[in-house]
Design a protein that fits this description.
Elements lengths: L2 H4 L16 H8 L2 H15 L3 H14 L4 H13 L3 H14 L4 H13 L3 H14 L4 H13 L3 H14 L4 H13 L3 H17 L37 E3 L1 H11 L5 E8 L4 E8 L2 E7 L5 E8 L6 E5 L8 E5 L4 E6 L5 E3 L11 E7 L8 E6 L5 E5 L5 E3 L14 E5 L8 E5 L4 E7 L5 E8 L11 E5 L8 E5 L7 E3 L2 E3 L2 E3 L5 E3 L4 E3 L4 E7 L8 E6 L6 E4 L7 E2 L9 E7 L8 E6 L4 E6 L6 E8 L11 E6 L2 E6 L5 E6 L3 E8 L5 E8 L2 E6 L10 E5 L4 E6 L9 E2 L2 E2 L5 E7 L9 E7 L4 E15 L4 E4 L13 E4 L8 E4 L28 E10 L10 E8 L4 H9 L9 E5 L5 E5 L10 E6 L10 E8 L1 E9 L9 E4 L1 E8 L2 E6 L6 E9 L9 E3 L3 E2 L12 E3 L3 E8 L8 E14 L33 H10 L2 E3 L16
Parallel strand pairs: 32-38
Antiparallel strand pairs: 1-31, 2-3, 3-4, 4-5, 6-7, 7-8, 8-9, 10-11, 11-12, 12-13, 14-15, 15-16, 16-17, 18-19, 20-21, 21-24, 22-23, 25-26, 26-27, 27-28, 29-30, 30-31, 32-35, 33-34, 33-36, 36-37, 39-40, 39-44, 41-42, 43-64, 44-63, 45-56, 45-62, 45-64, 46-47, 48-49, 49-54, 50-53, 50-55, 51-52, ...
Length: about 1100
């Protein structure tokens, strides 16, 4: 849901007809449940921006209430938002026959006429609204805009000024006044208005393109709907939690005692077994249960049993769950070698020997490995950074913003939905503190909340974050702590805190406990499978625990079935018998463990999920799960090796969306209920550079990625890579054909990055067909190679022999372009990086050639900034770009070119001059790297064409920025590279959004005529259509085109400098990115005017778009 529009279609259902007709009084009397439900669903569909369903639902409502002007108005509003303007106008005009003064109808008729270009008619309707109420900013603005459209700019000025009086932050009005001042040659006033507009646009919340139309009359008209007629997704299914003595006895027999504590419950959904980590008087055990809860295996883990807790995770990515035990006296990490054969690695990794009160695994630095944070008992917290090779580095006190004293509870979660992990802690001074993640291992404290009661360190307090009310945001609840620590209101205690946009906490009223007695939360889980988290409570003075069902937005409801057991000191929920509902492994206050079987929860549907990461941690910690089914939404964060999803009465769900920690989306479509669902992270690119497509006479063909030499903010080896903002993309003549005298190129940004596109040129060369012409392009470090066209002659040939470091003969694989690649490396977890490897090429007899070139074709999968950071932390791997070696006089390999350069992207050819590299008569060379480059063809040429070619320039005729969507990807040859089909597109966003001001859609030709820091700023999904003037091709010659592109790309990786935002803006004269305080983007009048005029499309929330326009199809 786009929350920026949610206040338009507010789900309040409060009757708000201030200016409507009189038929509503009679409607209230004749209102029935069916009509109310249709109105409620219509409102809900409008809120979800599901306009086709809103139109269908409102049409049914008008059929039930044909005399209701308001229902007709709502149908007309739905038509308008569904881009059916003619239907909207007809329906709204019909409503005015029933209610001639309905301002909602007037206003939407104004909008519909504005959209189809009928400005005079639009002005008439907007003015009729203003006559009745001139206090609405949107109405005043639209009157002014309509006046401007019909040439009455001077008359429009007072309306824009009146809009600003009503809404001082109305940026669009400042823009209109600025443009009027510019046209009127009032330079100083224009600059003043320009600055105000710029400041407002940079600070305001995300505003979709039609945000200026939001106002009190945008609609739909809201009705007061009885609560029973509203969609309610909770279930009142009562569940029975009964003691299963057989289960308990089987465990008692295995460890020879019926007293102990469950430290962790770890289901293996694939093998259908559950591992219980139990501390008892005999030690700490791993007890493995089969699906019938019979004991399969028992393993003694430690002889110590006085643990406070256990944090489990697969920290070394070997697919075995490892265990971190902690108590007030000591902390121990056990590495699981398999089947709970464990090794104590505490001393090896340098774990502090003292006690801990809490522990959490989380990838706080977002480089793909699970780090460890410990809440020290007497000293400060400890932070251990995972090096990726099984070792850790103690970075305590070195993470900016996380320097603080000891406390009893800690947790990581994404509170602000910006796809990084924020941090929450409770300290000894009774304060709950929230720290926002600023990325690049930086945090800042944003809120401090004092709990009502004192913190007792002996209580095993836990901070849990769950989306209790299904609003897509995590709420906060504390377990194993008395409820009087929460917000008190008379005799009630709210046990759930809502986190506000300003980070403050607000008690959630539906989660009030009506009791004077102190109650402790023992477990939070979905007992009845309706998708809403329920709460298991233990009450001081009570005889047994109580289960309260989440009935949001209504209050908590006590489960009607009592729990037949004594009071509990702890509880963990898991599906022990794999029957589709969550059972409870609990411990009584007397220290006796109890297993409570859930007998009823599986009457509702469910899915249990196991996700497995590849680029991310194996158990997917930090991923997000979002279920979407019609209007039903359910969100979870992965903090365990499994996730249980209650579905209520749904036998399938439309979409399960997984957002992996690195920001990649992965969807499971039409997932059937009542199953164990295993999902493995799919391979794919996150960042690569914008894609180039050309019209080949039949269709648009994928050519290559562009500006791969120009990443900004890319972290590599302790610093940032210097970008080369200019690249020439080679396009064969058969890949680019003229249409109506024009050459058509599409550049589309489809990955999780921002494109700053500053200049585009097209040149071509004609040459004999037997010669292949290439540009002197490669990915390398400064100084960057100057532009040169180099011809590969017909005499170019493969090396005489070619071997890899394993002794494999790869000469045939390197002889032709056939998408067959030698791979002397094993693809690893980090994209494009592995062990050191090499190719040895015997170039054969080169005679007395003075000029020798290699023409090397291949592609590379470039690692992200996060992966580069992980490599830096991992001593077993290194980032080594390809370098060239030859034999010296001692017969030893000696480096002569470092780096040698490599293809910048997908299947590009690097011409490499090796004329002067040899130290002896030996003509063998060696290419060494840890970067996994997929070489397809390597040829040696002793007669390359170096004489200047005749170049033809093709002027840029037009450049149109619009929405392009995302092409279907496929594997070109079974083993890579990934290729793209322009003709098969989707509008389903694949990534979250980088935020800031992007270039508005439309003509951007003037921005691409020179390298002048006036560039097109493109979000993923954006496309530029470029048209160049064609020239006549000679019939007996071949033509090769070169598209020159100038600009930069910045991916949204967590470690990329300023990767989440458009700014700071790059510029031609910058020394490096990120640049220092002494440098800045040019802010002269020309560049300020550019920023103001072109960059007006705002993205302020990474999770939501600014509106998805329709796809453009021209061929």
């Amino acid at each position: 849901m786009n929350t920026n529009k949610s206040h338009r279609f507010c789900f309040l259902f409060v009757f708000s007809l201030f200016f409507g007709g009189i038929e509503e009084n009679t409607l209230a009397a004749q209102s029935d449940s069916a009509l109310n439900r249709l109105r409620a669903l219509g409102q809900a569909y409008m809120e979800e921006e599901d306009f086709p369903h809103a139109i269908e639902t409102y049409s049914q409502a008008t059929a039930l209430a044909p005399a209701s002007a308001s229902d007709l108005v709502n149908l007309g509003i739905a038509y308008y938002h569904g881009d059916k303007n003619e239907e909207a106008i007809r329906t709204l005009e019909k409503s005015l026959k029933l209610d001639a003064e309905n301002v909602f109808a007037f206003y939407t008729l104004g909008l519909a006429n504005k959209k189809i270009g009928e400005s005079t008619q639009a002005l008439e309707y907007f003015q009729r609204v203003a006559e009745k109420d001139a206090t609405d900013a949107a109405v005043n603005y639209n009157v002014g805009l309509a006046l401007s459209k019909i040439g009455r700019a001077d008359d429009a000025v007072p309306w824009f000024e009146r809009t600003i009086k009503i809404d001082p932050n109305h940026s669009s009005s400042y823009y209109q006044l600025m443009m009027h001042a510019t046209r009127s040659r009032q330079r100083e006033k224009a600059l003043e208005l320009q600055k105000k507009f710029r400041d407002l646009k940079s600070a305001e919340e995300q505003r979709p393109p039609d945000a200026v139309d939001e106002g009190k009359f945008l609609g739909p008209i809201e009705f007061e709907i009885p609560r029973e007629d509203l969609p309610n997704f909770t279930s009142d299914l009562a569940v029975r939690l009964v003691r299963n003595n057989e289960w308990s006895q089987s465990i008692a027999d295995a460890i020879q005692t019926d007293h102990g504590r469950f430290l962790a419950v770890i289901p293996d959904l694939i093998q259908k077994q559950t591992d219980l980590i139990i501390a008892c008087e005999n030690g700490t055990y791993a007890v493995s249960l089969a699906s019938d809860a019979s004991v399969m295996q028992t393993r003694l883990l430690t002889s110590t049993s006085e643990w406070r807790g256990c944090a489990f995770a697969d920290y070394d990515n070997d697919e075995n769950i490892d265990l971190l035990f902690y108590s007030g006296e000591r902390t121990v990490l056990l590495r699981n070698e398999g089947s709970w054969q464990c090794t104590d690695v505490s001393e090896t990794i340098g774990l502090h020997p003292g006690g801990s009160l809490d522990a959490v695994w989380a990838d706080f630095d977002h480089e793909g490995d699970l780090d460890l944070l410990l809440a020290g008992k007497d000293s400060a917290h400890f932070i251990y950074q995972n090096n990726g090779d099984g070792s850790f580095t103690n970075v305590s006190g070195k993470v900016e913003g996380l320097e603080f004293e000891a406390g009893p509870a800690i947790v990581f979660t994404d509170l602000d939905n910006d796809n990084d992990l924020d941090f929450i802690r409770i300290d000894k001074q009774n304060r709950l503190e929230i720290f926002s993640n600023l990325r690049q291992s930086r945090f800042t404290k944003v809120h401090e909340h004092v709990l009502p009661g004192p913190v007792n360190p002996s209580e095993n307090i836990k901070i849990l974050c769950r989306d209790f009310d299904h609003d897509g945001k995590m709420d906060i609840i504390l377990t194993n702590v008395s409820s009087d620590r929460f917000s008190r209101e008379d005799s009630s205690h709210s046990i759930v805190y809502k986190v506000n946009p300003d980070w403050t906490l607000t008690p959630s009223k539906p989660f009030m406990l009506e009791s004077d007695a102190s109650q402790q939360i023992r477990a939070v889980f979905d007992a009845n499978n309706d998708g809403f988290e329920d709460i298991l409570l233990d009450c001081d003075g009570g005889e047994s625990p109580s289960l309260f069902l989440n009935q949001f937005p209504l209050s908590l409801q006590a489960n009607s079935h009592p729990i037949p057991t004594a009071r509990l000191s702890s509880a963990i929920a898991a599906d022990l018998d794999f029957d589709g509902d969550l059972d409870v492994a609990a411990v009584s206050t007397e220290g006796k463990y109890l297993l409570l079987e859930n007998l009823d929860g599986n009457q509702n549907h469910w899915i249990s999920m196991k996700i497995k990461g590849n680029k991310n941690s194996k158990d997917g910690y930090g991923s997000k799960i979002m279920i979407k089914d019609d209007l039903f939404r359910q969100k979870h964060e992965i903090t365990s090796s499994f996730i249980h999803l209650g579905l209520g009465n749904r036998d399938q769900v439309d979409v399960i969306r997984i957002t992996w920690p690195n920001g990649i989306f992965q969807n499971v479509i039409h997932a059937a209920a009542d199953q164990i669902l295993a999902v493995t992270e799919k391979p794919g690119y996150v960042g690569s550079c914008a894609f180039v497509y050309s019209w080949n006479g039949k269709q648009f063909e994928f050519i290559a990625d562009s500006l791969c030499t120009a990443p900004i903010g890319l972290y590599v080896g302790g610093g940032y890579f210097p970008p080369d903002p200019e690249e020439y993309i080679r396009i064969r003549g058969d890949q680019l054909r003229a249409k109506n005298g024009e050459l058509d190129i599409r550049i589309r940004e489809e990955l999780r990055e921002i494109l700053y596109f500053d200049e585009a040129e097209m040149i071509s060369v004609t040459h004999p067909p037997e010669i292949e012409v290439y540009a002197n392009e490669r990915f390398t470090t400064p100084p960057f190679p100057e532009f040169q066209l180099i011809g590969m002659s017909p005499n170019a040939r493969p090396p005489r022999r070619a071997f890899d470091n394993h002794g494999n003969d790869v000469a045939e694989l390197l002889s032709i372009n056939d998408n067959q690649y030698p791979r002397p490396f094993t693809p690893g977890r980090y994209t494009g990086i592995g062990e050191e490897h090499w190719f040895e090429l015997d170039l054969g007899d080169l005679g007395d050639a003075k000029t020798i070139y290699l023409f090397m074709t291949g592609y590379v999968d470039w690692p992200s900034s996060s992966e580069a950071l992980a490599l830096e932390q991992n001593p077993s791997l290194d980032f080594v770009m390809p370098y060239l070696q030859v034999k010296n006089k001692k017969g030893e390999w000696e480096t002569v070119r470092d780096p040698m350069g490599f293809p910048a992207g997908k299947l590009k050819t690097v011409p490499l001059d090796i004329s002067d590299i040899f130290l002896t008569d030996d003509r063998c060379i060696r290419i060494v790297s840890t970067l996994q480059i997929h070489w397809d063809r390597i040829l040696v040429d002793t007669s390359p064409v170096l004489t200047p070619f005749t170049i033809t320039n093709h002027p840029l005729i037009s450049a149109d920025l619009r929405y392009g969507g995302y092409s279907q990807s496929y594997d070109l040859a079974g083993r890579g590279p990934t290729w793209y089909d322009y003709g098969v597109r989707t509008t389903n966003s694949r990534w979250d959004y980088q935020t800031g001001l992007f270039t508005r859609f439309g003509d951007v030709l003037s921005l691409l005529r020179g390298f002048d820091d006036r560039y097109v700023i493109m979000q993923h999904g954006d496309e530029i259509a470029l048209r160049f003037q064609a020239a006549k091709e000679p019939s007996n010659q071949a033509t090769t085109y070169f598209l020159r592109v100038v600009g930069w790309v910045k991916d949204a990786d967590h470690i990329t400098a300023h990767g989440s935002t458009v700014e700071p803006l790059p510029f031609k004269a910058m020394s490096i990115y990120p640049y220092g305080r002494a440098e800045h983007y040019p802010l002269d009048e020309e560049h300020l005017q550019y920023l103001l005029e072109y960059n007006t499309r705002t993205f302020a929330n990474p999770n939501e778009s600014a509106g998805i326009p329709k796809l453009v199809s021209e061929f």
